């Protein structure tokens, strides 16, 4: 991170150069000074937004470009949003603002909507892996927690199941049946699943010691008997803690409506260079891979509210 003393020296140097440029009517000198100042900011770590100071043809700073760059490069440690917006399309700009000005990937504005103070994700019909599959860059950390509310539309078609809600990615962020046994990454997400006799949530975890290519459920489910109800609200709490080296001193925890679903030590990675939690996932889609098994002929909706994300370490 840039040190205060260095910033102070460069600030004085910048002021002198700007003054000189004004006296000799040499606007490019101002731009050069700004680029030098930007170079110092570029040395800051990921936790600091890094605005790029751009000089236009007249030597003046482009404030809009600077602000846009700074916003796009924010890495929030905390997010707290109730999605309190007017009904309508949930734009990238609005979502980024709600997620602490984080840079988002996969944000499909045609699949994101605000409805009655809830964020709504749309799942497309006759397809798999085709919904709102997004993510937000967050400040690197060794422990994070998140809580949110989730509700399936009253006419939701369960089909076989799919991914739902918020989660965390670690290191390279393994998902998509990319087995995590190389020790370079992992992830914690949530599924809904229909086994033919009941429908339930289950954890969906990628970690160093997983046995199969796709997510590990640890044999856990919520509810432990009976089924999820369409139109009902469920409160989810997630906690992840990185392990160190090859130790199994990481942690994973999933609570739903106050009931402990999963709570145990875990080895996420074996490569310390990839041990940190760096991304908040927001994955909502059907699948699985086989449309005949996992797909639905209906357009379906899932609703979310009261998202709180905190960096613990």
For the record, the count of structural domains works out to 2
Low-confidence stretches: 1-72
- What is Rg? 23 Å
How many strand segments?
15
SSE topology sketch:
Elements: H1 4-23, H2 27-42, H3 63-72, E1 78-81, E2 88-89, H4 92-98, E3 104-105, E4 112-115, E5 118-123, E6 132-141, E7 143-152, E8 161-171, E9 185-194, E10 199-206, E11 233-241, E12 250-256, E13 259-266, E14 277-286, H5 291-294, E15 300-311
Antiparallel strand pairs: 1-15, 2-4, 3-6, 4-5, 5-15, 6-14, 7-11, 7-15, 8-9, 8-14, 9-10, 11-12, 12-13
Outline the structure in words.
The protein has 313 residues and is of the alpha+beta class. The protein has helices spanning 4-23, 27-42, 63-72, 92-98, 291-294; strands at residues 78-81, 88-89, 104-105, 112-115, 118-123, 132-141, 143-152, 161-171, 185-194, 199-206, 233-241, 250-256, 259-266, 277-286, 300-311. Strands 1, 2, 4, 5, 7, 11, 12, 13 and 15 form a 9-stranded antiparallel β-sheet that branches. Strands 3-6-14-8-9-10 form a 6-stranded antiparallel β-sheet. It is globular, with a radius of gyration of 23 Å. Residues 1-72 have low confidence and may be disordered.
């Amino acid at each position: 991170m840039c040190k205060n003393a260095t910033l102070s020296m460069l600030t004085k140097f910048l002021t002198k150069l700007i003054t000189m440029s004004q006296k000799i009517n040499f606007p490019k000198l101002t731009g050069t000074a700004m680029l030098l100042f930007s170079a110092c900011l570029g040395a800051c770590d990921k936790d600091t937004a890094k605005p790029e100071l751009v000089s236009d043809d007249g030597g003046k700073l482009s404030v809009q470009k600077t602000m846009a760059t700074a916003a796009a490069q924010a890495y929030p440690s905390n997010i707290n949003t109730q999605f309190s917006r007017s009904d309508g399309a949930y734009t990238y700009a609005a979502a980024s603002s709600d997620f602490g000005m984080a840079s988002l990937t996969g944000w499909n504005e045609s699949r994101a909507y605000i409805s009655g103070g809830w964020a709504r994700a749309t799942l497309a019909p006759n397809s798999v892996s085709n919904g709102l599959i997004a993510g937000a860059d967050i400040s690197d950390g060794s422990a994070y927690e998140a809580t949110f509310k989730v509700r399936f539309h009253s006419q939701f078609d369960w089909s076989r199941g799919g991914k739902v809600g918020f989660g965390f990615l670690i290191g390279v962020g393994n998902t998509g049946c990319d087995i995590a046994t190389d020790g370079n990454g992992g992830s914690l997400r949530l599924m809904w699943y229909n086994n033919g006799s009941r429908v339930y949530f289950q954890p969906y975890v990628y970690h160093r010691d997983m046995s199969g290519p796709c997510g590990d459920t640890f044999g856990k489910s919520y509810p432990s008997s009976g089924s999820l109800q369409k139109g009902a609200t469920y409160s989810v709490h997630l906690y992840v803690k990185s392990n160190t080296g090859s130790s199994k001193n990481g942690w994973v925890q999933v609570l739903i409506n106050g009931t402990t679903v999963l709570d145990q030590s875990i080895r996420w990675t074996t490569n310390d260079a990839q041990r940190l939690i760096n991304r908040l996932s927001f994955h909502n889609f059907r699948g699985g891979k086989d449309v005949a098994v996992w797909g639905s002929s209906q357009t379906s909706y899932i609703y979310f509210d009261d998202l709180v994300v905190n960096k613990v370490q």
